[in-house]
Write a structure and sequence with these properties.
Blueprint: H1 8-22, E1 35-40, H2 51-69, E2 73-75, E3 79-80, H3 85-94, H4 98-116, E4 126-127, H5 131-146, E5 150-160, E6 165-167, E7 172-173, E8 176-177, E9 185-194, H6 200-205, H7 215-225, E10 227-237, E11 243-248, E12 259-262, H8 267-273, H9 279-290, H10 296-301, E13 306-314, E14 321-327, E15 338-341, H11 347-356, E16 364-365, E17 385-386, H12 397-410, E18 414-420, E19 425-426, E20 428-429, E21 439-442, E22 446-449, H13 477-480, E23 481-483, E24 490-493, E25 497-498, H14 500-503, H15 507-510, H16 523-529, E26 532-538, H17 544-558, E27 568-574, E28 577-584, E29 588-589, E30 595-596, E31 603-604, E32 612-618, H18 629-636, H19 638-647, E33 655-656, H20 659-679, H21 698-719, H22 723-742, H23 750-764, H24 769-778, E34 802-809, E35 812-820, H25 825-834, H26 836-839, E36 847-853, E37 857-862
Parallel strand pairs: 1-2, 1-26, 3-4, 12-14, 26-27, 28-33, 34-37
Antiparallel strand pairs: 5-6, 5-9, 7-8, 9-19, 10-11, 10-13, 10-18, 12-15, 13-14, 16-17, 20-25, 21-22, 21-24, 23-24, 28-29, 28-32, 30-31, 34-35, 36-37
Helix pairs in contact: 1-24, 3-4, 18-19, 19-20, 20-23, 21-22, 21-23, 23-24
Bound molecules: ligand ANZ and zinc ion.
Ligand ANZ binds next to strand 11 and strand 15.
């Protein structure tokens, strides 16, 4: 017998143990069954699951369980993105070790995930910080070095003095380190790079072949790759052998060039300014700029400034002598690091020219306009006809782009070219807690790979961390001292580690055969499971993680290890979990439990001052607007938490936390519990009714219909990930049963009741799996609800009830019509007027009146 009331704690533990013992979620390749690979982005083991995780993983779990019930062989793995800087910082703070901290966090978080009942195949669990994982990453790195797909170069990097590390551009926020807030400076270092730019075109083209991805994500990727079609043009430097190459997307404006601008890091800056009297001003400027953030984003917002370097260049088209500047808005990393500046037609150049009193020359004139450089208030960036452009004058500017590029090409002064914004991926990190780069530096032989038989290069897990927070590897002789694999001389290991994005670029492949030790993965397993059918995660990974994963898949395809290019067929990016902030005038941000809502106005529990309720924002520790999943689990259980997360908002949208919403979810489950409890005896040993609806009476027929409609709706809604409407459909069904009861018109047929309660249990099972197992068992089933097939519906039970209506003309029976039971009066009258039998008797007459007798007849009065 079912317990009187619904008590989640006991039920949830019980079913989790049973699923575990039955090994229900362990899968192997089964060629007989269609496969379905469902993956959620794996978490960083920070120590605690937060509500964003709960939401992400609940969405995934519903799909995994649903697909399983639909007959798919479902791979649903979980693991840990376990390398990264927070472990080092936490270790320093808590006087522990990154490895110890990380593994303890993994244990804690695994227990939390298990407590929520997610259907993971835990046998496939992996952590990227284990040598049997990163060894294959090192192996792949070496293959890439050997094929020239990875290379070393000395380059400027964003450097944080506090964290003692290079920062990726994305880790620089408003010129400061994303982690500690210290101003970032530029430093030159030898770094390893992956040649992702080799695949720029392919990665771009395939953005349009990912119909299962949200368009906003593919658009972000396209912009990130940033293909520009233009020309490279060569400008001679006056009085010397030097020349300046520029990249421009606007060769049509070349007659309007009035100055050149070089990036401060451009090698010609120092050389050309030497001996011109501008050296001091130039080096002061270059020095100052080198201490500022040099990302595209920062440069866009920074005030444009520059300095004349004392040299002149010559315009190859008209021989005009033009001053050369260096300016903070030119990026060394893009194009050629030099630009031809056209103040009349580029707003940035316009502002710069205005600031330094440089001339403007108009070369494009839209029809009906006549710009005067002296009075122009902004650059003209639109189309028009060329003016002041010698033989090209009068040409339409689009056509001139090609014509001028061709003209330059013929004279070897330039060429058409394509430029990508995408840079090669710098992967060296001067950090400790990461995968060691498997290279050896030998004075005689150069930089050589570690022999494959010596892999993995183990990260010493017990190295003492340095006071300054930098990596201890560079001073740990037991790590870096080695011998050269080529000549046997004393040599030094690379002491940098890889960017953690490297680990997450291929983990989805490793899940297919996580324990395979003959190679990076078992090709056959990958062939069966990949690509991932559905990937689910945050939109913050729209560019880097997803682009790097697409890139790695291409590298592996090139190596013949996989036979596809795109790793993720469908992508869902779920919204954020949000909550209002609460602020006390004395104590600042308050946690929800520090606010007392019982009085007229909310007050701080500590000082009793009234508090202010702020905007609804993404839950974050710093703003304290967080709900701890553990508290939810303790108070409501896993199923209510899951139900609320799915019911409160569609997956792509932000979810606003609401305590009353959580209560509502809990109440609904109690209601279903009562419903099943009431009918438990009536349905014992009864088979579910599957016959035609017509033979059923009154309420039985109506509820049977509604149940069939609900099965269909929930099925379609889950297919589209509309979990919230799926849930409300079940709620309506349950309400209809209670409403009939209240009217004293309760269900009679035990088979219908059985179909009803079984359908409810099955439909809810992906969403509230423990609850559903419990009621499923209470109905006398002895197999797991999860192992049962998804419910089906009868087409003939979907239609709303129909009524037969008699049609009279002047009181005489002339026809019969069928209408939906809930049809509007006007619709019934219209159908009656259109009825053939009635029409014959209406010819030539005027209709005076149409009388409707509810549910019975329509009488048309005409003469
Ligand atoms: C002359 C010109 C005239 C330009 C005009 C634009 C408009 P996208 O579309 O992003 O590729 N540029 C080239 N290299 C640069 C660098 N390293 N740093 C900053 N700016 C650079 O932009 C290409 C345009 O950006 C190029 O075309 C160049 O300015 C500038 F009416 O050349 B243009
Ligand atoms: Zn050597």
């Amino acid at each position: 017998m079912m317990a009187e009331s619904y008590m989640p704690e006991a039920i949830e533990k019980k079913w989790q143990t049973r699923w575990d013992e039955a090994g229900l979620f362990q899968v192997t390749e089964d060629p007989e069954k269609p496969k379905y690979y469902l993956l959620e982005m794996f978490p960083y083991p920070s120590g605690k699951i937060h509500m964003g995780h709960v939401r992400n993983y609940t969405i995934g779990d519903v799909v995994a369980r649903y697909k399983r019930m639909r007959g798919f062989n479902v791979l649903h793995p979980m693991g840990w993105d376990a390398f990264g800087m927070p472990a080092e910082n936490a270790a320093i703070q808590n006087k522990t070790h990154p490895a110890a901290w990380t593994y303890a966090n993994i244990d804690a978080m695994r227990a939390q995930l298990k407590r929520i009942g997610f259907s993971y195949d835990w046998d496939r669990e992996l952590a990227t910080c284990t040598p049997d994982y990163y060894r294959w990453e090192q192996w792949l790195f070496i293959q890439m070095v050997k094929k020239g797909m990875a290379y070393r170069k000395e380059s400027f990097v964003n450097w944080c003095d506090d964290c003692q590390t290079v920062l990726a551009n994305e880790q620089v926020e408003d010129g400061a380190c994303w982690r500690c807030g210290k101003a970032v400076r530029q430093k030159k270092l030898w770094q390893w790079y992956f040649k992702i730019t080799d695949h720029a075109e392919d990665l771009l083209v395939h953005c349009d072949e990912l119909p299962g991805w949200p368009e906003k994500v593919t658009t972000m990727q396209k912009n990130w790759i940033g293909k520009s079609i233009g020309a490279r043009i060569r400008f001679a430097v006056e009085g010397g052998e030097d020349h300046i190459d520029v990249f421009t997307t606007r060769p049509d404006t070349v007659f309007g060039v009035t100055y050149m601008c070089l990036a401060p890091e451009h090698p010609l800056v120092a050389r050309l300014s030497a001996g011109t009297g501008q050296e001091a001003a130039v080096s002061e400027f270059v020095d100052r700029i080198s201490r500022q953030e040099r990302t595209a984003k920062a440069i866009e917002t920074a005030e444009k400034e520059g300095v004349f370097i004392g040299a002149y260049a010559v315009n190859p088209l008209n021989g005009r002598k033009i001053p050369v500047y260096t300016g903070n808005f030119v990026l060394m990393e893009y194009g050629t690091g030099a630009v031809m500046s056209v103040p009349a037609h580029d707003q940035r150049d316009f502002e710069f020219a205005a600031k330094y009193g440089i001339e403007k020359v108009v070369v494009i004139q839209p029809e009906g306009e006549s710009f005067d450089p002296a009075t122009m208030e902004a650059a003209w960036t639109g189309p028009g006809l060329l003016v002041n452009s010698e033989s090209f004058t009068g040409m339409e500017n689009k056509a001139a782009q090609d014509a001028i590029a061709t003209w330059l090409n013929e004279r070897k002064l330039g060429e058409k070219t394509i430029n990508f914004r995408l840079r090669d991926w710098g992967i060296s990190r001067q950090r400790y807690w990461g995968s060691p780069i498997p290279m050896i530096h030998c004075d005689a032989c150069g930089v050589v790979p570690v022999p494959e038989s010596d892999l993995p290069v183990r990260l010493p897990e017990d190295a003492a961390l340095l006071e300054n927070g930098g990596s201890p590897l560079g001073s740990l002789s037991s790590f870096y001292e080695t011998t050269c694999p080529v000549c046997g001389a004393k040599a030094r290991r690379d002491t940098d580690t890889m960017d953690t994005f490297v680990e997450s670029s291929w983990y989805f492949l490793r899940y297919c055969s996580p324990k395979f030790d003959q190679g990076i993965f078992d090709k056959e397993a990958v062939k069966y499971w990949m690509p991932v059918d559905q990937y689910i995660g945050g939109v913050e990974h729209a560019v880097m993680h997803l682009l790097y994963s697409r890139y790695f898949t291409r590298v592996l395809e090139g190596e013949g290890l996989v036979d596809f290019k795109e790793p993720f067929t469908n992508l869902l990016t779920q919204g954020m979990v949000c909550k209002e902030t609460t602020t006390c005038p004395e104590h600042g941000f308050l946690y929800p439990e520090e606010v007392d809502w019982s009085g007229e106005a909310p007050v701080c529990t500590t000082c009793k001052n009234p508090i202010t309720v702020g905007r609804v924002e993404k839950m974050s520790k710093s703003k304290k607007n967080v709900i701890d999943p553990n508290e939810m689990l303790a108070k409501y259980g896993a199923d209510t938490t899951r139900l609320f997360c799915l019911f409160a908002a569609p997956p792509e949208r932000d979810l606003e936390w609401s305590d009353s919403g959580v209560d509502g979810a809990a109440r609904f489950l109690k209601r279903v519990w009562r419903l099943v409890g009431r009918y438990q005896e009536a349905v014992a040993g009864v088979a579910p009714y599957t016959g035609a609806p017509d033979v059923l009476g009154g309420t039985d027929k109506a509820i049977f219909r509604k149940a069939n409609q609900t099965v269909k709706k929930v099925t379609e809604d889950i297919d589209r990930f509309h979990f919230n409407t799926a849930i409300s459909a079940v709620m309506e069904l349950v309400n209809a049963v209670f409403a009939a009861d209240e009217k004293g018109e309760g269900l009679q047929d035990a088979g219908v009741i059985r179909y009803l309660v079984e359908s409810i249990a099955l439909l809810l099972s992906p969403i509230v799996p423990h609850f559903s197992e419990e009621v499923w068992e209470a109905m006398g089933n002895d197999t797991a609800v999860l192992a049962s097939p998804w419910p089906t519906w009868r087409e003939d039970a979907l239609a709303a009830d129909e009524l037969l209506i008699v049609v009279q003309v002047n009181g005489k029976l002339r026809d019969r019509i069928t209408v939906a039971a809930d049809a509007e009066d006007e619709a019934i009258k219209a159908t009656a007027l259109a009825a053939e039998g009635a029409n014959k008797f209406l010819e030539g007459k005027t209709i005076r009146k149409v009388i409707l007798v509810k549910n019975k007849l329509v009488n048309i009065v005409a003469n």
